[in-house]
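Feature request disguised as a bug report, sorry. It would help if multi-protein outputs had a clear separator. Right now it looks like this:
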Amino acid sequence: MAAQQPPATPPVTRSIGRALLWPAAAVGLGFLLVFNSLNPSGQVKPPAAAAAASVAPAPAGPTSAAPSASPALLLPRSVPKRILIPEIDVDAPFTQLSIGKSGALDAPPENDSNLAGWFKGGVTPGERGTAIVAGHVDTKTGPAVFLELSSLKPGSTVDIARADGSVATFKVDSVETFEKKNFPNERVYADTASPQLRVLTCGGSYDKKNGYTDNVVVFAHLDKVKRAGA
């Protein structure tokens, strides 16, 4: 499984501090790489902080802008508990992902093929900003939770059940595949004025030496909210 790599220091996730620091961290350091589960040694380490400012992001391809969320849809911070994507039979719990000793994002455990990861240093799904979810496409034992992620289409929905009892439903804007060597960090990870979601896994071709060549990224925006007790 695969994804781009977060900064060595997680971005501030609340109020003005987050709004100011998240874009700089995401764009400057080339933010999250979900690692290929069958070749974890193939990880890419983030550039040194001193050099980060000079790293230009990969050019962004054309994409339709995500609709702005109504203020009534904005949710407070609450940890995601489960992801459901009925169209591809995904119904999986979350584990929290953090940055390991190597300075890279730890991947979800490989001994559970039905498990999604959420980067706990970022926003929670439904908050203003870009929430990051990642999972394996396969493991050593076979297919995994996001095996069919690339088959989603614009208009598909992703439900995130949260600890506060609410369910945030995100509508897919696009599903795109990027070469890891040309990953568009700014486009994928930059902060946003509305609640958005990015779901990442591996794609492209695979070999034992280098792992997967690509990352599959689902771009989605918050479409509706079912609040606890509703």
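(second protein starts here, but nothing in the output says so)
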Amino acid sequence: MTYPADRQYSKDHEWITLGNPARVGITQFAAQALDEAVYLELPEVGSQVRAGEPCGEIESVKSVSDLVAPASGTVTAVNAAVVENPKLATDDPHANWLYEIEVRELGDLVSSDEYDGLAKE
């Protein structure tokens, strides 16, 4: 699998674009493990998230998983399209972001090549 090089990745299988605000989503690896998302609980606009800490949930036909913030900062937007149709998050995870964040501090992130290696382990 090739992961887009224009973003960084967390060991919790989420991606973040570089910039402010940054967009956050789940990786293809996570999407395949979850199968089909049926419900998303995302952080509220204006809320503070902390890198490495849960900030929401994604529920699929297989399981419920925490969404773990890849950076610390303030949530500035939530993608209404994926909230209304959570399947978008797992059908095309690198095109469908979940929320935007005004980044204060990045968490422990890796490049697309490094993440590809982690996902293969």
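Even a blank line would do. Unrelated, but nice: Residues 82 and 88 are 6 Å apart (CA to CA).
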